[in-house]
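Good morning C.,

I know you're traveling, so I'll keep this short. The sequence:
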Amino acid sequence: MRAVMTVVLAGLVASASAAVDPDSVVGLWLLDGGSGDVAMDSSGNGNDGAIVGATWTDGHRGAALAFDGASHVAIPASPTTDDYLDGLTYMLWVDVVSVPNANSRVMERDWHNPTIQAGDADFYASVMTGTNNIDNGIRGGQHAPGEWAHVALTHDGATLTLYSGGEPVNESSVGSPTFTDANESGAIWLGQWKAAGWDLTGRIDEVAVFNVALGQADIQALMKDGLEATLVTAVDPAGKATTTWAAVKGVR
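The tokens, ready to paste straight into the viewer:
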């Protein structure tokens, strides 16, 4: 487990071709606390989540949260969790142990909009579009019990893309998402959706949300090097940052 530290948003520097605007980060949940009932948001946006029933365990990097089919993390709505007018990206590591229902919820914003779910052996991603909030979904990728899988969903205002292992595995021209359903508040759920059922049995680690559609190079860099190494910079006890955002920009 990595040591508890104060963090500041720094920017993605894993490769010269990949660069994430820090203003596009909605939330970063490293899930490395190792104890307690709060999933801390390392983005600086204050989108901490309440851990309900999930337990701390070993993760893909450091610690992670284990879900038993009756547990979840609830991240309350905020102005940042409801700002997807320019696009969106959801990503995380997940170990799907079992899928007792048709699709177990891995990560979801309120009323399936957007959502990442686990099928029997693949993943499902969707957003709601149009005045009738039509569910536009695509499937792809694969998972197996005991194995960590990296999955991401992006939407650029027109096209929904599902990534598995850093590779695009399916896409669909679905139009612009709508976030007007009366059931929606902007809250984000891990391991469950807002109504009980279709809960995840498995583990989740390193969750991130952006209000833009990241490209493949960014997704691969985040997957390979991790959120902490690429988006978060440690600050020493004296308060002196080892790397500053200004310095990072100067490298590009």
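Safe travels,
E.
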